[in-house]
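Query structure, 68 tokens:
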């Protein structure tokens, strides 16, 4: 059974049905959204369905969301 609120260890081990997540909070007076995206795209390959670099598995998918 998939845990509704899995721990980081359960997610990073794979099989929980969840993806790892990071929330980025930034000050637009210090860095622009375009600058954040520039760093993101430099470090992530969105065409790699198996994860990112040494982080492999379905929990390592690349997803971006924006909230205002």
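Result returned for the query:
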């Amino acid at each position: 059974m998939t845990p509704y609120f899995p721990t980081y260890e359960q997610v990073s081990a794979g099989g929980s049905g969840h993806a790892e997540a990071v929330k980025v909070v930034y000050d637009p007076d210090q860095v622009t959204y375009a600058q954040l995206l520039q760093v993101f795209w430099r470090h992530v390959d969105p065409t790699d369905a198996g994860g990112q670099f040494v982080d492999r598995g379905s929990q390592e998918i690349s997803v971006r969301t924006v909230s205002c």
